[in-house]
């Protein structure tokens, strides 16, 4: 069984990494040409939405009962993978 506190701390650290990545992407968006800038801004908005959803899920996990914890962790893993992929895809497009 995965230790709940360790898992939550790991997820919080990853959220901090995503915050830093978003700041880098935002800087690239601001320096982009007008036609590309709109596309970048749309991607940024989707990333922020996914991050907000992951942050909300993490908050619920923190407050979850022990019986609900394991089911929520599995759901978080799925959401985490999708958000990580979205970040990697966006980051590769911004280069």
TrEMBL record:
Coiled coil: 8-67
Keyword field contains Coiled coil: yes
Annotated keywords: Coiled coil
Name of the protein described by the UniProt record: Coiled coil domain-containing protein
Species annotation: Thiocapsa roseopersicina
